[in-house]
Design goal:
Number of helices: 15
Structural class: alpha/beta
Distance between the termini: 85 Å
Helix content: 25-40%
Number of strands: 23
Radius of gyration: 25 Å
Shape: globular
Bound molecules: flavin-adenine dinucleotide
Length: 506
């Protein structure tokens, strides 16, 4: 069995990773009777479904064609955050003199060492997702490509697995950019960038979404000359524009050159150089680099799985069609994770898996629409969001009031030199009911959880305002937004009443 993702360089760390997530000597078990669940795909969605169901006593088969742990462990969250952490240290050393810390001239970045660190950490973490661990938990693990051959049957590596319910958790892959020339050059995607051992002198990134943006900033901080191309007027175009602009400006300080409002027309190879031709305001221009990363979005893995044999409807771009209970158009087959959701995040896959367990094993009625799903982009500063933004609120006819606390009014942010950003909370007009929030801050990804908790459990801004936060913390900015809300309740009428009461009681 060979893996599709190339684990390069094939060093001790990647060999260790392979031994956990795709052991070369692995022998598939003999299928034994009918399974309660056959789970296809072992990324976060598949792993949580399998482990949760087996823990409740279900007989479970888990099928993986490539590397257990899926994108998240192998070519997604884990390696990207490993790279980002090294790049953050590089930026801290670069900026140390602003804090009065003198770093001797001649300090440098050992890119290969940073990538080796990432590979080591990834391999160490892979133990949790290992084939052996799942077998020890009583799950039949099959390495091979799973496909539906008929109702109630999935075939993998020549073995037939009969099931009562099946769950498709096959995730996605980097979307292809349909432009001339791309097939003639070597380019990077999230499947290959983490295999680099040499820092490209010049890196071109096509795509201004979270993946391209996180890598553009990191590689610039390592010392690459990075150009990021985006067809929208700003990067991270799914976010509130002023929030995205804070990140964009921070990245400009890191040296990233942005080419915005630009359509990529074609790609050429000139000697060892890669040339991307873009059209901007009616003019063509060339961007030259040594490596090219494409991060323009994700394509769901729906092909070659026999979905059409069992009446599961799917769309090449949007993935498998599911109802709110995550049931596909075949009532015995469910789906979870990137393959069926617009929320393409590990934590979303995790919570969808929990719904699937409930609905497949216990006739539950768990609903995906009941989930409040935050997300974060791990740039410096981070950008995190939950719930509605102003545009979505308008589209849904929800009238909102918005409260924003800039970080230059938050002592801890000032002291840390991280005062560009804000905490913004949207509430239902005239109430303190939180409907959404955006945070741009060093640890926005951690901070957003307080607001997610409040939204999930119906705690309003008044409750947040009355919750003591330690001083000085950046999290205190969230409480300050509560204060902003409270101030709006102090209308001239209320103030007048207070004044009267205080003069009577003087
Ligand atoms: C660079 C990058 C950074 C990211 N960073 C973050 C982050 O910081 N935070 C976050 O929340 N999310 C992040 N994500 C997204 C996150 O990785 C995904 O949302 C998550 O992995 C989705 O889990 P999943 O189980 O749905 O699919 P996947 O993780 O894609 O797993 C699907 C699995 O199914 C297997 N498979 C496919 N077809 C078959 C078949 N026919 N038979 C058997 N097996 C099959 C695949 O090999 C794969 O292992 C990142 C993604 C990328 C690419």
């Amino acid at each position: 069995m060979t893996s599709m993702v190339q684990l390069q360089p094939y060093d001790e760390h990647n060999q260790k990773l392979e031994s956990f997530v795709h052991p070369p000597e692995w022998a598939n078990p003999e299928p034994s009777g009918r399974y309660n669940l056959v789970v296809i795909g072992s990324g976060p969605a598949g792993l949580i479904t399998a482990i949760g169901a087996a823990g409740l006593g279900a007989k479970v088969a888990l099928v993986e064609r490539d590397l257990m742990g899926g994108d998240c462990l192998n070519v997604g969250c884990v390696p990207s955050k490993g790279v980002i952490s090294a790049a953050r240290v590089a930026a801290m050393v670069r900026d140390a003199s602003e804090f009065g810390v003198n770093v001797p001239d001649g300090w440098g970045i050992d890119f290969n060492a940073a990538m080796t660190r990432m590979r080591k950490l990834r391999a160490d973490m892979a133990r949790h997702d290992s084939a052996t661990r799942f077998r020890e938990l009583g799950i039949d693990v099959f390495l091979g490509s799973g496909s539906f051959t008929g109702d109630g049957c999935v075939e993998v590596a020549g073995k037939k697995l009969n099931y009562k319910r099946a769950v498709v958790c096959t995730g996605g892959r980097a979307a292809k950019l349909p432009i001339p020339g791309l097939d003639q050059i070597d380019y990077l995607t999230n499947e290959s960038i983490f295999s680099l051992t040499e820092l490209p002198k010049r890196l071109i990134v096509i795509g201004g979404g979270p993946i391209g943006t996180e890598m553009a900033q990191s590689f610039a901080r390592f010392g690459s000359k990075v150009t990021q191309i985006e067809k929208a007027p700003n990067i991270l175009s799914r976010e509130e524009t002023d929030a995205a602009l804070v990140v964009q400006q921070a990245m400009e300080k890191d040296g990233v050159n942005f080419v915005l409002n630009a359509n990529t027309v074609r790609v050429e190879k000139r000697g060892n150089e890669k040339v991307v031709v873009v059209e901007q305001a009616g003019q063509e221009r060339e961007i030259v680099g040594d490596q090219l990363l494409i991060g323009i979005g994700r394509t769901p893995n729906v092909d070659g799985m026999g979905l059409e044999n069992v009446g599961v409807k799917f769309h090449e771009r949007h993935g498998i069609e599911v109802n709110d209970n995550l049931q596909t158009t075949n009532s015995c087959i469910y789906a979870a994770g990137d393959v069926c959701s617009k929320f393409k995040f590990t934590h979303a896959a995790d919570f969808m898996a929990r719904i699937v367990i409930q609905n497949t094993l216990f006739k539950g009625r768990g609903k995906a629409s009941a989930l409040t799903i935050p997300w974060a982009t791990y740039t410096s500063p981070e950008l995190a969001h939950v719930g509605l933004g102003p545009d979505e609120a308008t589209q849904q006819g929800v009238e909102i009031d918005t409260f924003t606390q800039p970080l230059d009014g938050v002592d801890r942010a000032i002291l840390e030199g991280d005062d560009e950003g804000f905490v913004r909370i949207h509430v239902k007009k005239g109430t303190d009911k939180i409907v959404g929030a955006t945070i741009v801050a060093t640890n926005a990804g951690d901070m957003i959880s307080e607001i997610t908790l409040a939204m999930t459990h119906g705690l309003g801004l008044k409750k947040i305002a009355s919750t003591i936060h330690p001083y000085p913390t950046q999290g205190d900015a969230i409480r300050k937004v509560g204060d902003l809300y409270n101030r709006t309740r102090l209308t001239p009428f209320v103030k007048g009443l207070f004044r009267k009461w205080l003069s009577w009681t003087r």
